[in-house]
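User: For a reading group we're discussing how well predicted structures match intuition. Take D-alanyl-D-alanine carboxypeptidase. Before you show the prediction, I'll give you the sequence so everyone sees exactly what went in.
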Amino acid sequence: MITGLSHRATVATCALCVAGLLALAPATAAAGSRAGDPAPPPPRAVMPGPSVLYRSGTQVRPHRGAPEVPEVSALSWLVADAGSGEVLAASDAHRRLPPASTLKTLFALTVLPELPGGLQHTVRYEELADVGEGSSLVGVEEGHTYQVSDLWHGVFLSSGNDAVHVLAALNGGWRTTTARMQEKARALGALDTHVVSPDGYDSPGQVSSAFDLAVFGRAGLHNPDFARYCGTVAASFPGDGSPYPIENTNRLLTGEDGVAPYPGLIGIKNGYTSNAGNTLVAAAHRGGRTLVVTVMNPQAGGGLEVYEEARQLLDWGFASAGLVDPVGSLDGLRVKSRPAAAVPVAAATSGSPDDDPGWTGTAVVAGLSGIGAAAVALRLRSRHHRTGQG
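Assistant: Thanks. Here is the predicted 3D structure of D-alanyl-D-alanine carboxypeptidase, as C-alpha cells, for the group to look at:
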C-alpha cells in the first residue's frame, strides 16, 4: 500500500507555505530594526511651483461676460477671496515696495496673541525715546498707565507709532519684535517682506508687497481681536484728567474727508509716508463672500485716491463672482509637508528576539519552508514508488 501525499495535497501544502512566507515577510523585515537604530528622515517640504503672480503687469483669467478689470494707477495691487485665498486679479503682486503703516498688520498678527488686552502698563521714558520724527501719534505719555487694549486702539485707529513702541517693549523689545515679525511673515509665506521698523516708519531696506500685505490682512480676519480693532470706527483714549476721542483714519470705513464709506467694509489698515506714498489693505463682505484688496502707492489723484482705487477693485471683485479663474493663491507660498508614511501593523507590533520568548518571524518562515520542502520530497518519493511497480 502506497502512503504518499496526493498531487492535490502537495499543491495545497506548498501554497500554504508560500502564503505564510508572504504574510510574514514584512514582520521579518521589521524584526531587523533594533532599538538605537537611526530614525528615518523627516518628510521633506513640498515647495510650490512658479506663479503668474510673479509676472509684471495685470494678471487675470476672465470667462466670457466677466467685467473689465478697472484701470488703476497704483504701482501694485491685488484682489483676493479671503475665504478660499484665491487671487482673482493682481498687478505686480510681488513688487517690493515700502509698506508704510500697513506693516502694522504684521505687527498686530505677531504681538496681539502675546499680550492680554486687560494688562495694565505704566509707560517709561525709554519706551518712547526712539519714536521717529514726524511719526503719526495717538498721544501716549510717559508715566501714564494704559491698558493694552487702549494701546491697540491707538495702533489701529490713529496709527500711533508711540503705541507701537510701547507694545513692542512689552513684547521683549524692538529688536526681538522685529525678528518675530520676520519669522511670522515667513511662516505665512510672505517672502517679499523685510522688517526693519515694526511701526512701518520709513527705513532703508524695509519692503513688503501687495501679495504679502493681503496675506497679513486675511490672516488678521481669523483673529477676533484683530478683526474687532481694525473695524472700530471711534474710541476713547486715556489722557490727563479725562479721555479724549480718537477716530479711525481709514476713510473707507469712516466716510470722512469726502470719501463715501464702502458698504460692508470690515476695515483693516491704511498707511502713508513720503517714501511709500499712500497704501491700503481693506476687506469687505457682501453676498456671503469676503474680499481683501491691497493698493500700493497710486500715481494719480491726491492722497485720497488710494480709497477710490480700492473701491473700484472691490466692486470688480464682487461683480466677478464665478466669472474669473484664480491666478494664484494667498496660501501658495506656505511650506507644505508630505504626510509621513504609514507604519505597517506587523512592523509596529514586532519586537526584537529578546523581547519575545516565542518564535520569531524568521524562525516561523524557516519552519514553514522546511514543511514545504518535506511535502515536496514525500510527493516525489511517492511518484517514484508508483513508477517502479507499474
